[in-house]
Amino acid sequence: MRSMRTRIAAILVVAAMGITMSACSNDEDSSSTTGVVVTDEANNNGTDSTLNVENGTIATNEGESIDEDGVLRQEMVFGQGLISGEDSNTQQDATEAPTEAPTVVVTKQVTVTEAGGEPATDAKGEPVTEVVTEVQTEAVEYTPSIYSDYVYWLDMTNNNGEYDKVFNGEMFVFEFKVKENTPDGNYEIGLSEPDFVNWDEEQLDVATVNGYVTVGDATANIPNQVQPGQFTIAVEGVSGNVGDTVKVVLNASDNPGLVGLLLKVSYDQNALELVDSYQGSALS
């Protein structure tokens, strides 16, 4: 049977692919992960510690190895460039279709016409005018700017001999502020590159469903349906107006049990400003 040290190292490699929470390692050896900030409840009474993994050897920043009953947990982290060698800077994608153009109300003075189409005149023979308002589409060019980064989560705590965490519902929450001058439209929250692992070091088959933040009077896009029985992470759509802060929830369904994951999340940072991100009620 694997020792705790070897299993932790293997799961970190499978689930985190060389992740570093406080610094990115440039070591080409994929079995080496350094600087991972964790909660080591067994040895440090629940306080944060820095974990170093070198070829299956687990040690804290004090140089002490985690014992066989040690536990390892890292709450959700997003947007810190977690993957070694991954350029998590803003990515422009000008190939995306522009959002719906905003509309404006225009007031103008027009000449009144008679039934036959001739201009109406007053008693002095002067043309009769009136003030009218009309809604016009504003010619505004909008180019999205797509930002992508990874969510990382790990929980290898022992619950009466069970390590895999089985939960469904509200997994992660992202709070976005709709930026000023954002045109009405649907702004996609994309999920990709899921890498989920269980205690047996098996990568899980996970489907992802993208969702949308619908701004203003735009008609909401309907996301794809979640397939029953398939482990799925789906974005729950939400609506808001310019200046609003909206909560975008990532829901899990048909979860067979896991201990760690990576998931790439993308959004249009020209339209949405990330205010906060945190674990949902299913992980609380």
Topology:
Blueprint (H helix, E strand, L loop, with lengths): L3 H13 L15 E8 L1 H4 L3 E7 L2 E4 L12 E6 L12 E2 L10 E9 L17 E9 L7 E11 L13 E10 L6 E13 L9 E3 L1 E5 L16 E5 L1 E3 L4 E9 L6 E9 L3 E8 L5
Parallel strand pairs: 11-13, 12-14
Antiparallel strand pairs: 1-2, 2-3, 4-8, 5-8, 6-7, 8-16, 9-15, 9-17, 10-12, 10-16, 13-15
Task: Explain the overall architecture.
The chain has 284 residues and is mostly beta strands. It has 2 domains: 4-86 and 142-283, no CATH class; 103-137, no CATH class. Helices cover 6% and strands 43% of the residues. It is built from 2 helices and 17 strands. Strands 4, 5, 8, 10, 12, 14 and 16 form a 7-stranded mixed beta sheet that branches. Strands 11-13-15-9-17 form a 5-stranded mixed beta sheet, with no helix packed on it. Mean pLDDT is 75; it is low at 1-6, 16-49, 53-58, 62-70 and 82-98.
Beta-strand percent range: 35-45%
Question: What distance separates the N and C termini?
Answer: 31 Å
H and E order:
HEHEEEEEEEEEEEEEEEE
Range of helix content: under 10%
Low-confidence stretches: 1-6, 16-49, 53-58, 62-70, 82-98
Average pLDDT: 75
> What does the largest sheet look like?
7 strands, mixed
What structural category arises from helix and sheet content? mainly beta
Shape: rod-shaped
DSSP E strands, number: 17
Number of helices in the DSSP assignment:
2
Radius of gyration, in Å, reads 27 Å
Overall tally of structural domains: 2
